[in-house]
Amino acid sequence: MYGWLWRMLPGRSASKAALMTLILAAAAAALWIFVFPWAQAHIPIDGSSIGG
Amino acid sequence: MGKRLRAVIRGTGELLLSLGVVVLLFLAYLIWGSAWHASRAQHRLAGELNSQWPASACAHDAHVPARPDPIHPVTGRPFAMIRIPAFGPRWQFTIVQGTSLAQLNVSPGHVPGTQLPGQLGNFAVAGHRVTAGNPFWGLPSLKAGDLVYIDTKDNTYTYKVTGKQQVLPGEVAVLDPVPGHPGQRPTQRLITLITCNPAWTGTHRIIVTGILVSAAARTCAAGPGVAAG
Description:
The structure holds two protein chains of two kinds.
Chain A: H1 2-8, H2 13-42
Chain B: H1 2-52, E1 78-83, E2 92-97, H2 101-104, E3 109-110, E4 121-126, E5 147-151, E6 155-167, E7 189-197, E8 204-217
Parallel strand pairs in B: 2-3, 4-7
Antiparallel strand pairs in B: 1-2, 1-5, 3-4, 5-6, 6-8, 7-8
């Protein structure tokens, strides 16, 4: 997976590394901003109410 | 064939490692990210109350008698503030209507169907113990005699803690107007605060109960200032 991504990226090692960092950071940011808030609203981490 | 198998094994390993990192990141989000998210929501909700509570609604002197207090809660919208000095002088949160995750992830919420602040019966409020700024983190440490202030547009209701107990999530009788006695006519004005116990679980609830000891017009010093998230 990461090997394939590495080979797909253009340029030399330095630019590959920079792009790779950028992609991973973007993925982490998307998780943090969009996916995690959604998940928190659907997974009862700590049940805090009573009844329904 | 061996090469192909190696690629599959390597791919699976990378995927599992990545999932592990995502889970750790989610944990970090629950601890820090959700607190930041809730703190921003608290600023917004307190601001909403501020704009709905005109300066003329508060009393400039303490001990002005309580006034009629018509509250019409709307799901997800704030209608009161809760202050508990035992949690620190700056500790305050809004109370929104409803206790689904969408509400509890931004603010403690009023359990629908239970009474409103100051009314005869039982005013029940649930809040996260962890995540969302850990509003009810300190609930288990409250002692008999600690005070809980509920500010509404017109009044401030002071409740005194009388006890706490651990119950199961399905024990809805603690929400009754007379807790434990469904259908009985209430003669007392109670408050019930609810959070999870132990922290990070859904197995039990800890509830803190209190009784109204005073109701007075809200003073101008007790308003929805910017809540500490």
